[in-house]
Design brief:
single chain; 340 residues; 6-stranded mixed beta sheet; 11 strands
């Protein structure tokens, strides 16, 4: 009887230990499963502008490498409108499960909060930054035939022509609130010129009308404008960055060309996810994007477009977004631009 009691006591004593071991094993297995379960289906990257623009170009550049790395398709969905707000809003209201991402821009996450009186999403609270993909300068371009007809070869030639023809020039952009729009507004305020702003749902349709002669000027992102510049449809006058671009080093900056001190309006593009997206998913995407951007082939491809790759960490990207909010709030205020 005493032996049976001792055996039973030892058995009961073991149960909590065995139960704890089982729980640890279960948690470990669950953690490992959670780490490998995503993605189990295609992932959507929402581009908040029309196909063919720089946002679209960069999203499509990294998507194949992500598809290869994760074994699932990364599909691009273009949803343009309202300066990128429609696409950004869609993603902000999507589940934070890692299956819907946004290729955000300086407009959606740097400018629009200051420019729009009402924004349907909060660029800080509604998103988790993943990584900055690339930064690019903007370029001041005009229709090549009109430039030749009116002998416009420099930024100063354009300023002179604009002042002599007030109200007759149309300035295209990829949408209200984009850096393309704000670069033009900044140019107008610093030169005392006026051009009617015509917003489009992305760079591609705006460039189409500009190259066709329906628009007069645009401050487009360099990657989407380069093919038309090299094809002779557009004449480039200057880049809007603080330094010349390695892709087109012959072009002066606007500051150099026209003496506009401090003129700078560059663009950037980065991946974000809806708030609540698991940290391990965010980290895995960031690491694979960084690998893609560091490859020699991708570096060469982006260099020809005038884009500067990044691939920074989520924390670094969050800090970048915070700085951009403050910077562009000042630019919007100085330009007087506002969208209701």
């Amino acid at each position: 009887m005493r032996q049976i009691t001792r055996t039973l006591s030892r058995s009961l004593a073991r149960r909590p230990v065995l139960g704890m071991a089982a729980a640890v094993l279960l948690l470990t297995t669950s953690a490992a499963w959670a780490q490998t379960a995503w993605p189990s289906k295609p992932v959507k990257i929402v581009v908040p502008f029309a196909a063919g623009g720089t946002t679209d170009i960069l999203a499509r550049a990294i998507a194949p490498d992500l598809s290869k790395a994760f074994g699932q398709s990364f599909v691009i969905e273009n949803k343009g409108g309202a300066g990128g707000n429609l696409g950004a809003d869609q993603v902000s209201k999507s589940p934070g499960d890692g299956y819907t991402l946004l290729m955000g821009t300086v407009g959606t996450h740097g400018i629009n909060r200051a420019l729009y009186s009402k924004l349907p999403y909060d660029p800080i609270k509604d998103f988790v930054p993943i990584t900055l993909v690339a930064g690019v300068p903007n370029v001041m371009v005009i229709n090549a035939e009109k430039a030749a007809a009116n002998k416009i070869n420099t930024v100063n030639d354009f300023i002179k022509y604009a002042k002599a023809n007030p109200g007759k020039l149309n300035m295209a952009s990829s949408g209200n609130g984009t850096s393309i729009h704000l670069a033009g507004e900044l140019f107008k305020s610093q030169t005392g010129t006026f051009m009617a702003h015509i917003p489009y749902r992305g760079s591609a349709p705006a460039l189409l009308d500009l190259s066709g002669g329906n628009m007069d000027v645009m401050f487009d992102n360099l990657p989407s404008a380069i093919p038309l510049i090299k094809g002779g449809k557009l004449k480039a006058l200057a880049v809007t960055s603080s330094q010349r671009s390695a892709a087109m080093p012959e072009l002066p900056t606007v500051e150099e060309a026209a003496g506009l001190k401090g003129f700078e309006a560059s663009s950037w593009f980065g991946l974000l996810a809806p708030a609540g997206t698991p940290a391990d998913v965010v980290s895995r995407i960031q690491q694979e994007v960084a690998k893609s951007l560091a490859s020699p082939a991708m570096k060469e491809r982006l260099a020809t477009l005038g884009a500067i790759p990044s691939g920074n960490t989520p924390a670094q990207f969050a800090e970048h977004i915070d700085r951009e909010h403050k910077k562009w709030a000042d630019v919007v205020k100085a330009s007087g631009a506002k969208v209701d």
